Amino acid sequence: MKYEKIIKKLRSLANPKNVAGMARFGINPKNTLGVPVPKLRDLAKKIGKDHKLALRLWASKIHEARILASMIDDPKLVTEKQMGDWVKDFNSWDVCDQTCMNLFVFAKPAYKKCFDFPKRKEEFIRRTGFTLMACFAFKRKDLKDNSLIKFFPVIKKYSTDERNFVRKAVNWALRQIGKRNIKLNKEAIKTAKEIQKINSKTAKWIAYDAIKELESKAVQKRIRNK
């Protein structure tokens, strides 16, 4: 499927009412068509993997085209430069998260970026670092426990960032790692309790919410039955 045909298809699926609804959930309405993610996934299946097309779709600046780009790009061809260029364009949490889940987490430079991106001050770039950590926990079963444990000091360090899209991603990373298995659950709860002692309202919220879920009967039962 050619670029022009894809853009035409996306515009034909546009729904202004969806855009308004998305905005209420904190999704940036700029250059947004209101195309549901399931329809983007259906379109991605028809297109197949195409790195060059993905780059062109990203360059369109259309919200849904960028999410689609993350679905059709080949993670084996994603370079550190591409990751760096794309995160600069992140202006909405859903584009950030979809790109991490669909593409970045499978790219070779991704693990390193979990340590690099949190150092950046930009809200969505910092969020990307923690979103990637969360994605590694549930998407990459090949990653060893010790590799995930190395994320905890970074999580603790930035647990005082009050910005909504950062604090939620920090919390997400902590919870996802802690839900992977018993060993990581114990380490995550230990980290959460350390964060709880920090004199910060944001840190205390992150810790409380994480501990509540990680110590819950549902999570404990699931990880012990694995």
How would you describe this structure to a colleague?
By secondary structure, the chain is mostly helical. The protein folds into two domains: 1-73, no CATH class; 92-226, Leucine-rich Repeat Variant (Alpha Horseshoe). Helix content is 69%, strand content 0%. It has helices spanning 3-12, 16-24, 37-47, 51-59, 63-72, 80-89, 93-102, 110-116, 123-139, 145-149, 152-157, 164-178, 182-196, 201-214, 217-224. α4 packs antiparallel against α5 and α12 packs parallel to α14 (201-214). The longest helix is centred in the middle third of the chain and has 17 residues, at 123-139. 39% of the residues are buried. The model has no long low-confidence stretch (mean pLDDT 96).
What is the arithmetic mean of pLDDT?
Answer: 96
Cα-atom radius of gyration = 18 Å
Strand content: under 5%
Major sheet attributes: none
Indicate how many domains the architecture comprises: 2
CATH evolutionary superfamily of the largest domain:
Leucine-rich Repeat Variant
Low-confidence stretches: none
Helix content: 55-70%
Number of strands: 0
Annotate the secondary structure layout.
Elements: H1 3-12, H2 16-24, H3 37-47, H4 51-59, H5 63-72, H6 80-89, H7 93-102, H8 110-116, H9 123-139, H10 145-149, H11 152-157, H12 164-178, H13 182-196, H14 201-214, H15 217-224
Helix pairs in contact: 3-5, 4-5, 5-7, 7-9, 8-9, 9-12, 12-13, 12-14, 13-14
Offer a few descriptive terms.
226 residues; mainly alpha; Leucine-rich Repeat Variant; 15 helices
